[in-house]
Each structure stands twice: as C-alpha cells, then as structure tokens.
Amino acid sequence: MGKSQFEKAVICFFKAITLQPEQTQLYVSQAEAYLQLCDFQSAAACYKRAWLLEPGAFSARLAFIYYLQGQCLFDGGLFLEALEAFTKAAELRPDCRAYEVRSLACLTAAGRHADCLKLVNDWMLSDGPTADLYVLRARLHKLLSQTSQCYQDVRSALALNPACREAAALLLQLQEASERARLKAVDRASTGRLPDALCMINVALENCPQDARLYLFRGILYRRLKDFTAAIEDLVTAVELSEEEEEEEKEEVTFQLVLTYNDFAVQCFSRGLYAEATLLLNKAIEEEKSEPALYLNRGDCFFKQGDWCFAMADYQQAEEMMRPDDPAVRLRLAVLHNTLGSLCFQDGCFQEAADMFSLAVQYDPTASQYYENRSKAFRKLQNLDRARRDFICTLILDPTNEELPPLLMHLFPGCSVSDVLSSPAGQAVRDQLMDTIQACSSSSDQQRLSEKLQKMTLTGENTASQSEAPPAAGKELKLCVNQQEMQLIVRSPQQVEEVVGSFLHECPAAHHTGPRQTTHHPPSAPPPASTQCNTTSPP
Hints:
It contains 27 helices and 2 strands. By secondary structure, it is mainly α.
C-alpha cells in the first residue's frame, strides 16, 4: 500500500484474511486497496464484512463508497444503476441530504419526474417547506405539464421569500406563456372559432390561474357556447378575484354575469322551465336592479306560470324604467290585461273585464281582439252603444274575423257590414281609431322598435377592448318572448281562449286574484260616436 502497489496489496490482504478472518482491520485495509483501484463494488463488499464484525462502525465510509460508485455510474450515463448506489448511501446515512439530492438527479436524468416529485414531497413533509423546495417542486410540475401547480408553488416560494430570484424568473415565464395563449384565444374568438379559443384560454389559465381577466374571458366564451353553468362558475370566480381590481373591471365582470344569468333564463324559458328561469332572473336582478329587460323576462316567466300579480308588478316596474312608448313593455301589459279581462269575463265579472280590456286597448290599440273582447263584455253589461263602437273597431282592424257575423246580427240587426262602415258613426269610429293608432306609432320609428325587441342592450356600445373580452362578446340582453310571439297570443279569439284555458287548467286558483289586480292606468274612454243603423236591442 505504501508503494501504491494496490493489486499486490489486495492479494496480500486476502491471504491475511484467510489466516485470521476475525480481524476487522484486514477487511478495512483490503477495502481501501480496492478503493484505490476504483473497484467500488469490491470495496463495499469488504466494508460490509467489517461491519458484520463491528456493526455500525463503518456506515459513513461505506455510504461514501456507494456515493463514489453512484457518481461514476452517473457520469457514464447509467442513471438507474447510479440511483441504486445513491439510494444505498442514503439508507446508510439518512441524515445526509446530499445523497438524496444525487438520487433526485438520477431520477431527473432518467425522466422519472413523478418519482422526483414524490421525493421532494417527502422532503417537505419531513423538513418543512422552504422557498428552495417550492422552486424545485415548481420546476418538476412544469416538467410534468402540471402548470397550475407550478404557478401555486412559485407563488408560495415568493410568499416565503419575496427576493427569491429563481421563483421570480419562473413566474415571469408563466405570465409570458399565459399572455401568448390569451392573444391566440382573442385571435380565434375574433374569427368565430370559439372552441379553439376556449382551448387557448384554458392554457392561459393554467399558467396564471389567479388572473380575473382570464376567467372573465372564458366565462364569456362559455356563455357564447351556451354552456351557462360553466360560464357562471367562471364569472363568479372572476368576481371573487376582482375584489381588489379597479371599479371598471369589477363592473364589467358583474355585467357579464348578469348577461349569463339572463341568457340561461331565456334558454330555460324556451324549454318550459319557467320556475328555473325565474330563479336565474332573481339572481340577475340581485346583481343589476336597473335593467328593465330583466323585469320583462321575469314577468314573462310569471305570466307563463299564471302568477298574474307578480307578472303585473314586473311589467309595471319595467314600464317605469323604460320609455312610455317602448313596444316591449306595452305589448306585454296589453296581453296581460287582456288575459285578466278574459278571466274576469269567465267569472262573470263583466265590468272588471271591460276595464281590463280597456287597459289592453290603451296599451295596444292595433289589436282587434281587445275590441272584440270588450264589445262582448259591454254587451253583457247591456251597454250596447259602447259594444257597437268596439264592434266597428274590430270590423275595421280584422274584417275577416269569423266571430263578426254573429255579433253583427246581435248588435246591428238588419244591417250589412257596408251599412255599418259607411254610416256616420262608422266613419267617426274609423277616424278616431286611425288617429289613435297614428299617435301610438308616430312616437318612434317602427323598424327601430322592432329591432330593439329582438335585442336590447344593457350598456349600448361594446366598450370592452379586444384584450379584455372576445370580439363581439354579445353584450345583449335577450328577451324571453319577442314581438312576433307576443302578437301570436292575441292574433285570434281561438288562440286567446286556448291560452286562458291552459292557464286555468294549470293554475285553477289564479283567477281568484288576477282580476283584482290594480294598475296605475285608468281605463281609456270609448270614442264618442253613435250608430245610425238599427239600434233595436237583440233578443
């Protein structure tokens, strides 16, 4: 050994051990000779024999030999063999973290990142979390494409050590990747490729899961894709994350949440889920109490459920918030009063029915059905003069109505349609009716009103920049019932009777409270005209 003749030394020590196998120092000396020859396996075997003679005496040296063996194997690219050696060293010296760190290096080089993550988690449980361990685990999460976990570990590292440069560098990388993915999502959304945009915004959120803007963006995409449940979850999260943001951003998030509640309610309404739609609109109104279209939609839901009082309250609330000539609310109030009048008529409350029909006429003087219904109510009240005037209005507005011939025989016995229309009374009624319709329609452009029924905006123009929300995000509050559908309800007497009958069947107790609903509008006065046809009362 003194002359560095290690091979001969190994042989000599072997002979000595053969003669005296109980001497521990012989095994140690032979192991050191093997170590000089870089025969780590034989050196370890010798130290193991010495350890058997003196248990625990040479654990540190044996661990070091395993460490040297593992390092040589690692340098040679034999990572799994090196891992085995480092693992043995760590078992002998569990207090030495350097051996476990080399095991981590082997696992990383071998691509076994999941095992690396498990090892780091064990360290954090045994030694407690540190900024360095969080950074190390963050890098492992990134290698495993677990980007959101990577972000959380980076934030935890910065919370423990705000000056940690490695954590700050990792956070910057994540933010840059998130911004690139968000810009791609904006580009795809602007061209109508919403599913592709959703994929990209998911990538952006994985890199920055605490960014309220990204949840807002994805919530808008989900709403446009009609995945309302997911949209609401994202927008609620955006509301929670934007508590400390600027007021304008908080308003935008709340605004989109209201739109989503409303669109979801419209979808439920179209499927006949009126109670569910009402609950969603309640939530929308809690967030935004100044939007009349929400009250219109909730009123439509109450109307479909036969809750006339609640429907009336919502329609009147919308009426107070909108322009008096807005057709969206006028049509609904007209239909509701006509329905209430029909219920009163069926209950035999003819005066109340006439008052309700008068309000319906006031809101929509172009619907012949309201005049016909009021004419029948006045006839029951023996007020034939007003019944005849309403009959003439019905005849002018809907000359093909199948209900007119029987009414003509009762109200104008012996007179033909031409006799009634050409009489001075008929001409007077026609002139006043046309004046009333003209005054109602001239207050605003009909085409514009029709378009507004199809889409009512909450804030007018879309002020969100392309960087904040998908292009054409659809800042429009949809109505449950459009103008054409409202007009269908009163197109013919048969349809009115069917609608009323269905409501009575579904809600048999509704008619007890509906006719007693009070309104803010007095009944419209009938046109002052007198008939010169045969006024003999019908039998």
